[in-house]
């Protein structure tokens, strides 16, 4: 069905196509059984203390304002991350701001955290109880005078709901945001987050979403601070504002974050580096260029306990999750693994 509709969808502006996808999911017409596969038990795992059917997640950026996460669970995802959510509602950057690079199987976006704002999204999640593991990705408003305080505001608002909170310090589309990769700024943020955790009765996992454009010293600093402040997970990686040299599409020079196939190897290398340094103490979620079971398996064996995708679904449609599950099961059986967890980090050298 998607292959039939794809030419029509790809004739639409990318944001209009995205809005159409959100509206279509709200109708919830496809049966959940359509997306199940045989022997899926081998993919069962735990993430942040909660059992999930498979380690395939939908990355933040698709369901920005938490409108269709339960419908997304029904198409086979093991977990969903909504957002990025900011304290106040914001429009984001000026349009056009999303570009398909079809020759490269990639996207460039400079959306700028467009979302309905923390209060509306909190009420939406409270009203519509998640049917699976739900993460909430948070970030600062574009016009804020205090980015650190914006993170803290969102952390306090979302502490009672969802299963984990991701601090998005790595989008290239909000000026100054990546300064939180600096050791001093990141330490301030993480220590303040720990103060919130200490005062709360809720047990909540906190994650960092990291840029793929870091040098080794920055990686070492992030690893050290994550261990020191008891960060619960690291998402590797966000989009890249570099890596344009080998792109073929005419839109390659558009400003924004690059996702999809061109950053696949870059993110896998980052996963290996972090996995070796963390020594299994903090779980990694691998993101970047995942559009097949083979790509997912590569991330997992590199050291990712779970994976997320977004751009792959844009190009291959909602059945991509089912195909990845089938391919992963075949890979695990071929390699003699009895469960997906046994494969994590098995090729991290």
Brief summary of the model shown:
With 349 residues, this protein is of the alpha/beta class. It is built from eleven helices and 13 strands.
Task: Kindly describe this structure.
The protein has 349 residues and is α/β, with parallel strands linked by helices. The protein has one domain: Aldolase class I (TIM Barrel), CATH 3.20.20.70. The chain is built from eleven helices and 13 strands. The protein has helices at 2-11, 14-27, 69-74, 118-127, 147-158, 183-199, 216-228, 264-278, 293-302, 311-316, 320-335, and strands at residues 45-47, 50-52, 56-58, 79-85, 98-101, 106-109, 133-138, 164-168, 205-210, 233-236, 257-260, 284-287, 306-309. An eight-stranded parallel beta barrel has the order 3-4-7-8-9-10-12-13, surrounded by four helices. A three-stranded antiparallel beta sheet has the order 5-6-11, with no helix packed on it. α5 (147-158) packs parallel to α6 (183-199).
The fraction of residues assigned to DSSP E strands is: 15-25%
CATH architecture: Alpha-Beta Barrel
- Distance between termini? 40 Å
Main structural class? alpha/beta
Mean pLDDT: 93
Relevant CATH superfamily:
Aldolase class I
Number of domains: 1
Query: What is the number of E strands?
Result: 13
């Amino acid at each position: 069905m998607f292959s039939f509709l794809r030419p029509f969808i790809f004739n639409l502006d990318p944001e209009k196509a995205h809005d159409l996808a959100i509206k279509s999911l709200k109708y919830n017409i496809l049966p959940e059984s359509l997306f199940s596969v045989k022997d899926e038990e081998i993919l069962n795992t735990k993430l942040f203390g909660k059992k999930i059917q498979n380690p395939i997640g939908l990355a933040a950026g698709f369901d920005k304002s938490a409108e269709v996460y339960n419908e997304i669970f029904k198409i086979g995802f093991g977990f969903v991350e909504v957002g990025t959510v900011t304290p106040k509602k914001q429009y984001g950057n000026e349009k056009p701001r999303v570009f398909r690079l079809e020759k490269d199987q990639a996207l460039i976006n400079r959306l700028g955290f467009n979302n309905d704002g923390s209060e509306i999204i909190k009420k939406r999640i409270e009203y519509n109880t998640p049917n699976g593991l739900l993460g909430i990705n948070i970030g600062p408003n574009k016009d804020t005078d205090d980015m650190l305080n914006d993170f803290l505001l969102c952390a306090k608002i979302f502490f009672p709901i969802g299963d984990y909170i991701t601090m998005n310090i790595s989008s290239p589309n909000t000026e100054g945001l990546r300064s939180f990769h600096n050791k001093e700024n990141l330490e301030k943020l993480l220590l303040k987050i720990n103060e919130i955790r200490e005062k709360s009765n809720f047990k909540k996992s906190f994650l960092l979403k990291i840029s793929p454009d870091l040098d080794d010293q920055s990686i070492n600093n992030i690893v050290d601070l994550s261990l020191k402040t008891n960060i619960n997970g690291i998402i590797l990686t966000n989009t890249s504002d570099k890596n344009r040299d080998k792109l073929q599409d005419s839109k390659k020079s558009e400003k924004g974050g690059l996702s999809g196939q061109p950053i696949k190897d870059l993110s896998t290398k980052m996963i290996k580096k972090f996995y070796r340094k963390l020594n299994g103490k903090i779980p990694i979620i691998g993101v970047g260029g995942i559009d097949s079971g083979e790509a997912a398996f590569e991330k997992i064996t590199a050291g990712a306990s779970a994976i997320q995708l977004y751009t792959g679904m844009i190009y291959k449609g909602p059945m991509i999750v089912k195909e990845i599950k089938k391919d992963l099961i075949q890979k695990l059986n071929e390699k003699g693994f009895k469960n997906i967890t046994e494969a994590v980090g098995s090729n991290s050298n």
